[in-house]
Amino acid sequence: MSETIEFNDLKAQYRSVKASVDARIQAVLDHGQYIMGPEVAELEGKLAAYTGAKHCIGVASGTEALLIALMALGIGRGDEVITTSATFVATVEVIARVGGTPVFVDIDPATSTIDPLAVKAAISDKTRAIIPVSLYGQCADMDALNAIAAPHGIAVIEDGAQSFGSTYKGRRSGSTSAIGCTSFFPAKPLGCYGDGGAIFCDDDALAQACREIRVHGQSRRFHHDRIGVGGRLDTIQAAVLLAKLEIFDEEVARRHVLGARYLAAFAGHNALELPMIAADRTSVWGYFALKSPNRAAILAALTAAGVPSGVHYPEPMHVQPAFAGACRIAGAMTETDRWAAQVFSLPMHAYLTDDVQDRVIAAVLAGAGSA
């Protein structure tokens, strides 16, 4: 009987880091500081050092990271935030939550990340921020976006929920713009055992605002200088992340190997459009996503072969009912619409063996060839 193929094998990962995870969690149980315990500060220091950012603020989720970043910048009603429609809803719902207007622009078809030229064309006198998404583990062209934003005093907030561990021109995701946000949802490249996230920045005042907002706007106990949220990172989740950090570089290296194997196996196949990793970037492969006009046939072949798959994401944000009448669509969304109609994701995690990956590859090729 062939082994079950996991889309993201968290059980195998736990077995590899069990002793450290268990010891870290036990330490929290022993000291009993479940909220803002010492592990949170320890994690923040290590994540800041890893990314090269001056400040790291641990928060309750990747969504909360984006929300707090927008709040810290004072973005609200009447303000526009330019972003991509090719993303998970969290990127966009936080803009609406603070009263801003999402402005959608098209993507670069090669990388599926936001198109800087489309961003430039969409800027208005109401634009206060740009949120590029480091989709599937690869940063957008951050220097181009920063250069577009700077003359207008516009903040660039990286949504790096899928890209922690990747690099852009030698800099880590999270430290490529004024603010970087990431998620530690269990399925992410660095994931905890619940919800978690982090904000990265170099600006002292901005970091202080984020720290206060995450604890209900407190500058000191029971004194509230600003409106905030309950956005703290749990101590136990910080403990899990500290244990996983010990093996993170090895896992990223394995992800690079697996990504290269997928790319080599599918190269030159007319029915498959491969993700392009720009020469000045690396991808941590938060998802390995291909595009194909024959998606339905390929997904059927994968199911028949017992291979799990996903579509990340089937409906772009500019067609979602939640944002109807509450957004601005700037220009044609041709590539975004094609992406949503054709994209699909394959198993990708550091514990995927070559043999199992070969089974996945064979199933994809069988589906692509039969269409």
Write the layout of secondary structure elements.
Blueprint: H1 10-31, H2 38-51, E1 55-59, H3 62-72, E2 80-84, H4 90-97, E3 101-105, H5 116-122, E4 127-131, H6 142-149, E5 155-159, E6 167-168, E7 171-172, E8 179-183, E9 197-201, H7 204-214, E10 218-220, E11 223-224, H8 235-266, E12 288-291, H9 295-304, E13 328-329, H10 334-342, E14 343-346, H11 354-370
Parallel strand pairs: 2-3, 2-4, 3-13, 4-5, 5-8
Antiparallel strand pairs: 1-9, 6-7, 8-9, 10-11, 12-14
Helix pairs in contact: 1-8, 2-8, 3-4, 3-7, 8-11, 9-11
Account of the 3D structure:
There is one protein chain. By secondary structure, this protein is of the alpha/beta class. The protein is built from 11 helices and 14 strands. The strands form 4 sheets. It has an 8-stranded mixed β-sheet with strand order 1-9-8-5-4-2-3-13, sandwiched between helices. It has a two-stranded antiparallel ribbon with strand order 6-7. Helix 8 packs across helix 11. The longest helix has 32 residues. The two termini are 28 Å apart.
